[in-house]
Amino acid sequence: MLGPMRRGSLILAFAWLVALVATLGSLYYSEVRLFLPCELCWYQRIFMYPQAVILGLALWRQDFAIWPYSLALSLIGGSLSGLHLLEQKFPDLFTLACKPPVPCSVEYIPQFPIPLQALIAFALIALSMGFLAREVRRAGQRG
Known about the structure:
With 143 residues, the chain is mainly alpha-helical. The chain contains 4 helices and no strands.
């Protein structure tokens, strides 16, 4: 059976891996596939890209106190992803942040929309941070 700190390390590693894959995937879409990001995409990146760095540093330093910061970034970024997904599915419902040259209603991958991919990544990181918070509390009660 794994102790709380060992489980915490695994949870942190998972969250970092999700953030890293999301960041690299985002860069792949824009730099290799040449998908131009819309304004909402840029805002989502603002909340994902730092997580690839801060979660990696936290994992390296075994700093489990990172969870509230990452959770906040994930909840805000996930909310933006949800809004973006709604904008793509119901373009007449919203008119915010959809300016040229790339409107937010553009779907580059209709089968698996990019905002849905981002929402899943933010949700996985947020859930991981919830589990990490629980492990930190357990370790504090035992230590």
